[in-house]
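Just wondering, does anyone understand these tokens?
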Amino acid sequence: MTVTPPAAWRAGFGRYVGRTLVSTLYAAEAHGRDRVPTTGPVILAANHTGYLDGAVVFGLAPRPAHFLVLASTFELGVGPLLHLTGQIPLEQGHGDRAALTSALAVLQRGGAIGIFPEGGRGRGDLAQAEKGVAWLALQGHAPVVPVACLGTRATGELAASWPTLRSRLVADFGEPISVTRQDGIPGRVRLERAAEEIRSALAQHVAAASDRHGIELPTDLPPDVWD
């Protein structure tokens, strides 16, 4: 399958837009930015609780990234902006080959990809995760940086709600994870092991960051989950 990835300049423009948005409307903080490799392929894997998670991680990351975003979101009013800023539409379900191939092409040119392994908004505790991030890490030979996104949704708030203006939002970037390619085992087993390694590391990072910054994860599933 031949796929043309989004132009690199789009992610750079998008990062400026995202940073302006979250820094103007909120008390936004970025921690551990120096842990993100400045060059070469890298995957930013973040937990997902609220509507603004993408803008927060995208805007506060130390380098531009192309995020995998559910295709249904492109049908909303923000669709043109998502296209303009180089985001990659991801069809709901397991293993959107076109989206993953486009993301892999970004990694192969030495770019950064952003992904929410949980697959949708929830508690953000990484109790479960999809395998796409592991597939990209293995195929793209890319380290995975766990990102804790905190403060975008409180317990009881809707999935599509925005945080209160000037509230504290945090993006905490952790130590990169280098997934080991294990030879001599079936590819499916290798993928499952890599996915669990990433999920576990991200869950631990999110829990530690939540305690460190004093921002609790929501204890409920948002009552209007559609993303």
